[in-house]
Automatic annotation (TrEMBL), chains A, B:
Subcellular location: Cytoplasm
Keyword tags: Amino-acid biosynthesis, Aromatic amino acid biosynthesis, Coiled coil, Cytoplasm, Isomerase, Lyase, Multifunctional enzyme, Phenylalanine biosynthesis
Gene name per UniProt: pheA
Lineage per the UniProt record: Bacteria, Pseudomonadati, Pseudomonadota, Gammaproteobacteria, Oceanospirillales
Transmembrane segments: none
Name the record gives this protein: Bifunctional chorismate mutase/prephenate dehydratase
Length: 366, 366
């Protein structure tokens, strides 16, 4: 054996011994998960036991990221634990998750990111069908984008909470940011051709309309393909794609984050019929209907300001055309089980025509 | 705390302690992997060090499956180790893998199954481009189906080995089997409507033509959608989908494995420019050109028979139209580094116009 072989053999024997220990611990963990299921079923009586606890998973993942001191990156090791929990959960009860399809979309990525690859994820053609499948009990959870342009028209997912009696059980964030990539040149001058896939076009349309209304837009099958076409087609061509693609093809990023702000398709909601407990870092979403008068929104927001509660998102939703009311979707920090939040919700109640609590759930960990 | 809460807390504390141990071991493993990379680079001199060793990964996964005694299923725990190796490898060197796109196809699934989710997988529109990308060094490996109907015409991947100087470094199997699913009825009588996606149609066309030429075929976006449509559209409707879908929608399987035998799209090849060492359970692929005369194939196969070597696959490939030769693609058990196999290859050499060794590689583990 050469010196190199001896050194490698020593290291590989070490890896094998580590793998054996990891393996034994994985099965130990699975046995504990089985015992958890057993305890839950024993005490549950007639009600169906709840095996998936989003708040508990969020806590586990946060702890993993906190205590991690490398060399593995925090998000990589958290992803491994997500898969480990997914495998253990599948042993207790195989999870069925409905998502807005077709397969291969970002929503499927979001579903796998949140539930791991042991969950059975089933595509549905519309958000409406995803909600219906979860409400009927056909799927345990659903994954929907907050807003999606994949169906031709923008479907306002939030409006579906008015029609379906479902809750938000979690959120997933996919960090998809689009940039303008260029091979030879720096800067945004002399761009005549833009290569990009359909989905990217719908996510960056306003920015492109503002900056490059005249340039030819050529639709291709993927962002990687766009990069390759831009390289082939000379100095006046650019591609719209992510950091990863820029890196792979060694292209210059000549404009960053051109995604339209109004399109929050990088955030996805987990819907279900479960009340999620406190995880220690939670968010609450509500849908409020207020009289359509000047200052209504301001009054609403004052309550949050007075209680020092941070709003994380607000969106105006149309009420029915003949209605004299406005509807707002509001996200804020905190859990509805918390007394502090309960006080605000009570105050809001007296100021609004209707207040619907959509759910409290852990802030996205990964 | 209630009794249930006490019991659950005890179990969860146990899980947390197990997680801490797994976490520490994962980082230990990553450190070992870094040392492996260091050793390789130190001894490599000017040549580029090879970080990914398919034979070594296959051995690790086989050991995992052999020693596994549950409760986790063999394939689940092997999948976790695949991800662990993927994460550790990404730390040594981020892997770039080209695959036949678009995203969301089975080929992408095959790529993730083989390289784990830490590899950067990049879609290409044709097999040709995948080969070119790997040959030029733009990607470390490529993943291509043996045969694919996704490009409209059947592209014979195998023919590309004549044009590109690349090797087979591994194989991936996806177990995708299609069945005929029916809601109310048993048996194959009175079927007038068949719901299925385009891709499934191309994989099951001969069977459907033979058995249900007259039935209406309705293309839908996914196999799950097909099942839902079949349920909605009464007793004369069926869906073509997998076990998983049958299970999810509680449909009867009235005919099993209707996939056309000629379409091996459930097997994928890993291509690269690397000679893969012995893993202990390997396969070798060759491309042989023989004079186009009666008995040529028989003579060829005799060599394998005499040496008691099992053939795992054989396929006739057209030579150029004016050529007086026949070309065969042959897969058999064993590794070309093995003396036994070398003897056969030598014998074959004398009987053939040309013999191209495409590679020896580990038999698919998962």
């Amino acid at each position: 054996m050469s010196d190199q072989e001896t050194e490698l053999k020593f290291l590989r024997d070490q890896i094998d011994s580590i793998d054996q220990q990891i393996h034994a611990l994985l099965n130990d963990r699975a046995r504990c998960a089985q015992s958890v299921a057993e305890v839950k079923e024993r005490y549950q009586g007639d009600r169906e036991a709840v095996f998936y606890r989003p708040e508990r998973e969020a806590q586990v993942l946060r702890r993993v990221m906190q205590r991690n001191d490398g060399p593995l990156a925090d998000h990589e090791v958290a992803r491994l634990f997500r898969e480990i929990m997914s495998v253990c959960l599948a042993l207790e009860k195989p999870m069925h998750v409905a998502f807005l399809g077709p397969e291969g979309t970002f929503t499927q990525q979001a579903a796998s990111k949140h539930f791991g690859h042991s969950a059975h994820c089933i595509p549905f053609s519309t958000n409406d069908e995803v909600f219906r499948e979860v409400e009927s009990g056909g799927a345990h959870y659903g994954v929907v984008p907050i807003e999606s342009s994949s169906e031709g028209v923008v479907t306002h997912t939030l409006d579906l909470f008015k029609r379906f009696n479902l809750k938000i059980c979690g959120e997933v964030e996919l960090r998809i940011h689009h940039h303008v990539l260029r091979a030879a040149e720096e800067g945004l001058d002399n761009i005549t051709r833009i290569y990009l896939p359909q989905q990217t076009l719908s996510q960056c349309r306003s920015w492109l309309d503002t900056h490059f209304l005249a340039a030819e837009r050529i639709l291709v099958s993927s962002n990687a393909e766009a990069a390759r076409m831009a390289i082939q087609h000379g100095t006046e061509a650019v591609a719209i794609a992510s950091d990863l693609v820029a890196d792979l093809y060694q292209l210059n990023i000549v404009a960053r984050n051109i995604d339209d702000q109004s399109d929050n398709s990088t955030r996805y909601l987990i819907i279900g019929d479960q009340d999620v407990g406190e995880s220690g870092h939670d968010k609450t979403s509500i849908l409020v209907t207020v009289p359509d008068k000047a200052g209504a929104l301001y009054e609403l927001l004052q309550h949050f300001h007075q209680h020092k509660i941070s709003l994380t998102g607000i969106e105006t939703r149309p009420a029915s055309p003949e209605s004299p009311h406005s509807v707002f979707y509001i996200d804020f920090e905190g859990h509805a089980a918390n007394q502090h939040i309960q006080n605000v919700l009570q105050e809001l109640q007296s100021d609004t025509v209707e207040l619907k609590l959509l759910g409290s759930y852990p802030v996205a960990v990964l």
